[in-house]
Design goal:
Length: 768
């Protein structure tokens, strides 16, 4: 299949497997944007907004969390960032008239795409049980009713979820509201995403976030990439990668799928590349590891680095390892060394699905490089042994002192545009991560000190009936979580559900007894309050904080900002407290930034003055300075608890299902049915399989099958109507889209340390 070289066309290889032979970016991405323009019919202001995207003084993209450079390109956005903005600035409206025409029960049968395609929500709505419809209501009425309900409930029986987009200002107040009300039940989308990072990196190097900054990419000489679909999910990262390749940087990729963005890239912002068809080969080595096979692959590389060290030292007294760093900065090296040495290549090859020679080749790239960066996405975090994936990767990085050095480090590629920032300013179920003493003083209250509920805990307690109310600050919780069928049934026995959203989604249709749907401004829109237009801030994947100011005309006159909605609910719920100035904060977000600075003086010194620093301002990272805030005070080597990242081993008839995003979606928001970079068009109801697996399982291409859970727990979970589609995956691994296949993920099937659902190695059977 490497022989396929026709540019930008869909070709079948000798096995008739679909494979995109073009580059990521290029004319395809321009076409992708044009299609969205036609579909969303954005307002004229939208194009002007795009011009201001990701620029100082402009607004920060609502799509991915990748860093925004100091010197932006004329158009600092990508196909998918533009799609996200145009999706928000659509001229379509989901009005009270729409809700008058459809019952909620009827809408539950609609597809995700069709629900959001109705456009922006325009009015606050209340669920009316008698007619099974949403009916418009006044904001004051909604706040008063929510306040009355919350006052009646035990705060500990309520959950306040956040989906990673809301600004630092909103998030800080949302968490404050939860704590003043009396709980730490603050799960956010990070609990389904990079919580593995927050737990495993914290344990190993004392930092819950990555250690790299944008400039490191300009100085490294090798990059190792694990489990991230960059072309679709952080396309702007392809620019620095392309520049790195041009400097001679070696990129080694571990991914079961040959993702186009990591193979080839054509810069849509370079006229020369667009007109000449010139494209850059991104990965110099691309290894199709089995799903769940990374621990074995990394241990294989560690093994080879160690044996090369021994040989070099014996032959010419040179080190491969950074022995000074190991002695001064780490603990546990000897145990990992012993572990690697006793592993056989046979088991490494079996578990990883990769040949020893290839793993040695990859390790040789690391050995030769002076400065190496390790990047990763959901392919590592969403496994039962996801934390082991990450600590093993840290082991590899520590061998050569690749953390806390310019041009080197570990760099998780985060998801939502402010998911990292929400944790920074207090949205966390873990009270020990929040400066509660300082906040107790700031606001004259007694914050709850007990651990709150994360996503999985919250789901368990919704099923058991202990959770009685759920507030969603954005997102589509019911559609994004595991165990969807059971969760939807349990959901409806809650007393209160409140959803703050921009567009209609499935979570709004699974209602508690009392339910409100509150429409908010999007980030691209002008946020006018009594003191004038407001700016907000967010933190990117590389720990830089950026200001953002929308200038689009709001989708409806009845929208409120997220800050105003949070303050409105808090004011209606909490007893008066002169230190809780909800109205003043709504009027002037600068006051909220002052509060954030007071709570977190180290990271947010001079916050208001620095909001529009070009490239953002860096909040700092101790591990980058080689100060290790771990239990031992050193960077810790960790022996993995398992050689496979999967929770359940192989068995006759069991497949490893990876639930994947297409190039035409943002999480549960489905923009369309084109997974352009994978060559899959017109449908999402498919299951990808190796052609030899299709034959061996007695199936045929195009056959429609069901997937059923094979988790050995007696539960029946099934998704029907998936068309068998040949695709070059490792044998035994199959792929299908998220969120359609979420009903197959058992709630208990999650990373052991962080409880991140294991959406990438789900055990399933194929049912015909
Ligand atoms: N356009 C767009 N951008 C997005 C999003 C979106 O939906 N659309 N979502 C945002 C969010 S919230 C997030 S978290 C990120 C998600 O971005 P990614 O981290 O890229 O997440 P996935 O799309 O789930 O893809 C995971 C990748 O891991 C690979 N993989 C699966 N299993 C394994 C494994 O066991 N080992 C290895 N090495 N690889 C594996 C898959 O083939 C795939 O390439 O993107 C963010 N950006
Ligand atoms: N099987 C499986 N499950 C997964 C994953 C997977 O890979 N596989 N990935 C997981 C990951 S990484 C994540 S992050 C979660 C995502 O879970 P969520 O973050 O809960 O879901 P989203 O799909 O991002 O939420 C989309 C909704 O957000 C609302 N929205 C959009 N913009 C705004 C805004 O500015 N303000 C407000 N208030 N609302 C807005 C819209 O109404 C839209 O319908 O899913 C997780 N679930
Ligand atoms: Mo995510």
């Amino acid at each position: 299949m490497n022989g396929c070289r026709a540019k930008g066309s869909w070709v079948a290889d000798e096995k008739d497997t679909v494979h995109y032979s073009g580059a990521a970016g290029g004319w395809g991405s321009v076409r992708g944007m044009t299609e969205v323009l036609a579909r969303e019919r954005p307002t004229p202001a939208a194009l002007d907004t795009l011009r201001r995207q990701n620029k100082p003084g402009g607004f920060m993209c609502v799509s991915c969390a990748w860093g925004k450079p100091k010197h932006p390109h004329p158009f600092e956005f990508c196909e998918n960032g533009a799609k996200a903005t145009l999706w928000e600035m659509t001229s379509r409206r989901c009005t009270p008239e729409f809700f008058a025409q459809h019952t909620v029960t009827e809408l539950r049968d609609w597809k995700d795409y069709d629900l959001e395609h109705q456009g922006r929500l325009t009015h606050p709505m209340r669920y009316d049980r008698a007619t099974d419809k949403y009916v418009p209501c006044a904001w004051d009425e909604a706040f008063a009713a929510i306040g009355t309900e919350l006052k009646r409930l035990d705060p500990k029986s309520t959950v306040f979820y956040a989906s990673g987009r809301a600004s630092l200002e909103t998030s800080y107040l949302y968490a404050l509201f939860a704590r003043m009300y009396g709980h730490n039940n603050l799960p956010d989308s990070s609990n389904m995403c990079h919580e593995t990072t927050s737990v495993a990196l914290k344990k190993a190097i004392g930092s819950p976030v990555g250690t790299c900054v944008l400039e490191d990419l300009e100085k490294c000489d090798a990059i190792f990439f694990f489990g991230h679909n960059t072309g679709s999910n952080a396309p702007r990262l392809l620019h620095p990668l392309q520049e790195a390749v041009k400097r001679g940087v070696q990129i080694v990729t571990f991914n079961p799928i040959r993702e186009t963005g990591l193979e080839r890239f054509k810069n849509p912002q370079s006229p020369v590349e667009m007109l000449t068809g010139k494209e850059t080969e991104i990965s110099s080595l691309y290894l199709q590891v089995k799903a769940g096979g990374d621990i074995a692959a990394i241990m294989g590389m560690i093994k080879h680095v160690l044996s090369t060290e021994e040989r070099r030292w014996r032959e010419d007294k040179r080190h491969v390892l950074d022995v000074d760093f190991l002695a001064q900065h780490t603990t546990g090296f000897e145990t990992v060394k012993a572990h690697a040495e006793q592993l056989s290549w046979e088991e490494i090859e079996r578990e990883s699905g990769l040949a020893r020679a290839d793993l040695e080749k990859a390790a040789d790239v690391y050995i030769a490089a002076e400065r190496t960066i390790f990047m990763y996405g959901m392919g590592l975090t969403q496994h039962v042994h996801g934390s082991d994936n990450l600590t093993t990767l840290v082991d590899l990085a520590l061998l050569k002192g690749s953390i806390g050095r310019e041009g080197a480090g570990i760099s998780p590629i985060r998801g939502h545009s402010n998911v990292q920032g929400q944790r920074t300013v207090g949205i966390s179920e873990k009270p020990e991560l929040v400066p509660l003493d300082r906040m107790a003083e700031q606001f004259a209250f007694d914050p709850p000190r007990d651990t709150g509920l994360n996503t999985v805990d919250a789901c368990e307690k919704i099923i058991s009936g202990e959770v009685k109310a759920f507030i969603g600050l954005g997102g589509n919780f019911v559609r994004a979580i595991p165990e969807q069928v059971k969760m939807e049934q349990a959901w409806q026995s809650m007393r209160l559900t409140v959803q703050i959203a921009t567009k209609l989604n499935r979570s709004h249709l699974i209602n508690g007894e009392v339910a409100y749907l509150l429409p908010c401004l999007g980030r691209s829109e002008r946020d006018m309050q009594v003191t004038g237009a407001q700016a907000v801030t967010m933190e990117d994947s590389l720990s830089c904080i950026h200001g953002s100011q929308g200038n689009g005309h709001p989708a409806s006159d009845h929208l409120k900002s997220e800050v105003a909605i949070v303050c409105g609910m808090a004011k209606a719920t909490l007893p008066p407290n002169p230190k809780a100035r909800w109205d003043d904060w709504t009027a002037d977000y600068g006051l909220i930034r002052d509060l954030i600075e007071e709570s977190y003086p180290e990271m947010f010194a001079d916050f208001n003055a620095r909001v529009f620093t070009p490239g953002g301002f860096y909040k700092g990272n101790a591990a980058r300075e080689r100060i290790w805030k771990t239990e031992s005070g050193k960077a810790e080597f960790t022996v993995p608890t398992s050689l496979s990242a999967l929770g359940l081993g192989d068995k006759e008839g069991r497949w490893r299902l990876m639930t994947l995003r297409s190039n035409d979606q943002f999480n549960t928001t489905i923009y369309g049915y084109s997974d352009r970079l994978r060559g899959i068009e017109g449908t999402r109801d498919i299951v990808l399989m190796h052609p030899d697996d299709i034959a061996a399982a007695g199936l045929a291409e195009g056959q429609v099958v069901s997937l059923a859970s094979d988790a050995d727990d007696g539960e029946h979970r099934q998704v029907d109507g998936l068309t068998v589609t040949p695709y070059l995956l490792p044998r035994g691994c199959i792929g299908a889209y998220y969120p359609e296949t979420n009903p197959l993920v058992p709630l208990w099937y999650h990373d052991e340390a962080s409880k991140t659902p294991a959406s990438k190695g789900v055990p399933v059977r194929i049912v015909t």
